[in-house]
Design brief:
Blueprint: H1 3-6, E1 24-26, H2 32-37, H3 41-73, H4 85-89, E2 106-111, H5 114-121, E3 127-131, H6 140-155, E4 159-162, E5 167-170, E6 177-181, E7 188-194, E8 197-200, H7 201-220, E9 228-231, H8 237-254, E10 262-267, H9 270-273, H10 276-282, E11 287-292, H11 294-304, H12 324-340, E12 343-349, H13 358-378, E13 382-385, H14 391-402, H15 422-425, H16 435-440, E14 442-446, E15 451-454, E16 461-462, E17 468-469
Parallel strand pairs: 2-3, 2-13, 3-6, 6-9, 9-10, 10-11, 11-12, 12-13
Antiparallel strand pairs: 1-7, 4-5, 7-8, 14-15, 16-17
Domain Malate synthase TIM barrel: 177-427
Main location: other
GO molecular function, one term: malate synthase activity
């Protein structure tokens, strides 16, 4: 059944059109529900204002990415910037963590599909990261239906009738706190043009969601703060500075206090690990920490060094968090975040329960338990789970080691990580490359990872249900 029919909407005939402000052109299919609830004239004006104010800054940041990539392709290496040493060595802190999200010991992630949103909010996790990025194929219907779903979730009115099972899904009284992940800077929105060029995807995702939800979110979820966001794929603090300016612009439009919007940045590119202090500094009024986006981080190592034949990775199964460059990245992130007073979030447990194979299921759960125990003992304040079935195991690891503490910001400073060097963060991973490894990781369903494994791409691939996931 058509997704919009699932939402109880109707599509119009060819003569209908969205009511758009000057300079805005919507090329996605008309839907009355989208027009009434999301693509209103005022909301589109807000997105257009963001695009016009920040597009030159975004273009410059993307040009800088290309220049850096050329340096790496000609033998250069990423590293700490001498010009910002004063930030790394300075004594400063981010704004206090809002009470509503002080405890983030287990977070679940997933796309903004209606049933998924309800189940994730009801999952027992502390946070649900609703994803417009890696977990979602950016079709027009997916993006706009996702905006409708989140608006209904923030309002507390969301429900879903599964006709096949004759079951109605609704929100529990207690739900996870909602974070939203917009797309990365590099992705355009092909369905919305502003002044003759595609809008920046993340400005569409952020702008529409913020415009429609900031007031209800602050009342229903944020305890006076919010909305809350996850920011992906950044490579440099100049990109964080743009986000900070966007947040300030949005707060001014809404008439709320500066620092109301809060965001966690995913450190999932190799260049960004050398910019963690600088990223937090730029977002210091709006930051609630950093996250180890480790699957994309491994991919970024490959991408950064694609022209360095001496840096080929071993079989992917050998590239885990015990590799020195990954361990160093995690420990430096913890030290950096706790020094600045914000959360250091762990990585994704990508396994899913395997109901028809108890032995394989136990092996997968054992991997999750060991990984989460390593994270909490290292000092992480929380972790990610890809499936509700993993939440109890993840929660137990953090409960057993953190007790009643909301986080480890004050108790696990990790000053031993203060002297981690560029060489350690770039250290070549040890291991071998085998034909068995290639076969294992080339377009094959991996029951432990719970997704299509693909060595060549490493980053998001396609599951049988059509969703993208990290492999």
């Amino acid at each position: 059944m058509n997704k919009m029919m699932d939402l109880g909407t109707t599509t119009s005939d060819k003569f209908s059109a969205y009511d758009v402000p000057e300079g805005v052109d919507i090329r996605g299919r008309y839907c009355e529900l989208f027009a009434d609830k999301i693509l209103t004239r005022d909301a589109l004006q807000f997105v257009a204002d963001l695009q016009r104010e920040f597009r030159s800054h975004i273009k410059y940041a993307m040009d800088c990415r290309k220049e850096a990539k050329m340096r790496y392709n000609h033998g250069g290496l990423p590293g700490f910037d001498p010009a910002t040493r004063y930030i790394r060595e300075g004594e400063w802190s981010c704004a206090p963590v809002p009470p509503a999200v002080a405890d983030r010991r287990v977070e679940i992630t997933g796309p903004v599909e209606r049933k998924m949103v309800i189940n994730a909010l009801n999952s027992g996790a502390k946070v649900f990261m609703a994803d417009f990025e890696d977990a979602l194929s950016p079709s027009w219907e997916n993006l706009m239906s996702g905006q409708v779903n989140l608006k209904d979730a923030v309002d507390g009115t969301i429900s879903f009738h599964d006709k096949a099972r004759n079951k109605v899904y609704k929100l529990n009284d207690q739900t996870a706190k909602l974070f939203v992940r917009p797309r990365g800077w590099h992705l355009p929105e092909a369905h919305i043009f502003i002044d003759g060029e595609p809008a920046t995807g993340c400005l569409v995702d952020f702008g529409l969601y913020f415009f429609h939800n900031y007031e209800a979110f602050r009342r229903n979820q944020g305890e006076g703060f919010g909305p809350f966001f996850y920011l992906p794929k950044m490579e440099h603090s100049r990109e964080a500075k743009i986000w900070n300016s966007i947040f300030e612009r949005a707060e001014k439009m809404a008439g709320v206090d500066r620092g109301s919007i809060m965001a966690t940045v995913l450190i999932e590119t190799l260049p960004a690990v050398f910019q963690m202090d600088e990223i937090l500094y730029e977002l210091r009024d709006h930051s609630v920490g950093l996250n180890c986006g480790r699957w994309d981080y491994i991919f970024s190592y490959v991408k950064t060094f694609q022209a360095h034949p001496d840096r080929l990775l071993p079989d992917r199964v050998q590239v885990g968090m015990t590799q020195h460059f990954m361990k160093s990245y995690s420990e430096l992130l913890i030290r950096t975040c706790h020094r600045r007073g914000v959360h250091a979030m762990g990585g994704m447990a990508a396994q899913i329960p395997i109901r028809d194979d108890p032995a394989a299921n136990e092996a997968a759960l054992d991997l999750v338990k060991k990984d989460k125990l390593r994270e909490v003992r290292a000092g992480h304040d929380g972790t990610w789970a890809a499936h509700p079935g993993l939440i109890p195991a993840c929660m137990k690891a953090f409960d057993d080691n953190m007790g009643n503490a909301l986080n480890q910001i004050q108790t696990k400073k990790r000053e031993d990580a203060a002297n981690i060097t560029e060489e350690e963060l770039l250290q070549r991973p040890s291991g071998v490359r085998t034909m068995e490894g290639i076969r294992l990781n080339t377009l094959r369903w991996d029951p432990v990872l719970g997704c299509m494994a693909h060595w060549i791409r490493i980053s998001p691939s396609i599951q049988p249900n059509g969703r993208r996931c990290h492999s």
